[in-house]
Write a structure and sequence with these properties.
With 290 residues, this protein is of the alpha/beta class. Helix content is 40%, strand content 15%. The chain has a seven-stranded mixed sheet with strand order 1-2-3-4-5-6-7. The protein starts with a helix and ends in a 30-residue tail after the last strand. The chain binds manganese (II) ion (3 copies). One manganese (II) ion binds next to loops.
């Protein structure tokens, strides 16, 4: 069913329903609990919310319970880390079956890789003069597996950097010693995980990889070839030119369109829940599958 079909056979209001299909809770690197996240989404008039924590679905059941109280729909989701030609790429899985054995195996595998990666990052940082990096970062990760934001928090707390942005610029960001991504599975493997879990693989925030358009299109082609179904035409507030460009890529590769805030924390004006441009009408939305 297309979006237009959906809006014509229900109330006129449904054409303006806000779908936010990418956000994070404190079960990964977000700030809000799954419950608080859902309440905030409701306050922002979001009708359908996908919780897509990094490599975990730990918050989905709690989000769903809260959503039943608040009257919005939850789509079970996850944001997998992967690599394509040695670059880190994120694949969102939407509408995954939480009980799927292959999803559980994938989550376990990613957790092990994250733990291994955390130890490797810690080694790199210690070689750069940061003491007790692993234990320190762990103190900043009460809910889950240690990741780069937790190392960043430790670096700031220890006075190695003024703020998180500087920690990424100097130690953890793309191309810096703490940017370890070779442990992530290949993009095609992650797409397969999502499909096996009955979900829809979505290429996340294509403009955030700083690839040339040629490279980006080569990646999108591989994604589609491997069974990818949708691309985030809209990721948070973004330039109209970017929206139009990704919409053209979606059309060219016959991909559905997704949209989401990639919300992590209150206060980030570019990442507020439900607050981003609409997917252009030329692109079929991913929710036409549901
Ligand atoms: Mn994140
Ligand atoms: Mn991402
Ligand atoms: Mn994200």
């Amino acid at each position: 069913m297309t979006l237009s079909a959906l809006s014509s056979d229900s109330s006129a209001k449904s054409s303006t329903l806000i779908y936010d299909l990418h956000c994070h809770s404190d079960q990964s690197d977000g700030i809000l609990s799954p419950e608080a996240l859902v309440s905030r989404a409701k306050a922002q008039n979001v009708a359908v919310l996908a919780l897509t924590d990094h490599d975990t679905v730990a918050g989905v059941t709690r989000a769903r319970s809260q959503a039943q109280l608040e009257g919005l729909d939850i789509i079970p989701g996850i944001e997998f880390s992967s690599q394509w030609n040695g670059r880190g790429v994120h694949i969102v899985g939407l509408n995954v079956d939480l009980d799927s054995p292959s999803l559980m195996a994938a989550v376990t595998r990613q957790e092990e890789q994250r733990e291994e990666r955390a130890h490797q990052i810690a080694e790199k940082l210690e070689a750069m003069g940061v003491q007790d990096a692993y234990a320190g970062a762990r103190q900043h990760a009460p809910e889950g597996v240690v990741g780069r934001p937790h190392f960043a928090a430790y670096l700031v707390a220890q006075g190695h950097c003024k703020n998180v942005a500087q920690a990424f610029k100097k130690y953890l960001g793309a191309g810096k010693p703490g940017d370890i991504k070779q442990l992530w599975p290949e993009l095609e493997e992650v797409v397969e995980w999502v499909l096996q879990a009955g979900g829809n693989p979505v290429l996340a925030h294509p403009k955030k990889y700083n690839m040339t358009r040629t490279k980006l299109c080569a990646m999108v082609a591989d994604f589609k070839e491997g069974g990818g179904q949708a691309i985030e035409v809209v990721s948070g507030k973004q330039l109209d030119a970017d929206t139009r460009d990704i919409a053209r890529i979606a059309e060219k590769y016959n991909l559905l369109g997704s949209c989401g805030s990639d919300f992590h924390a209150p206060g980030g004006a570019w990442q507020e829940l439900g607050n981003f441009p609409r997917i252009p009408d030329s692109v079929e939305p991913v929710w036409s599958l549901w």
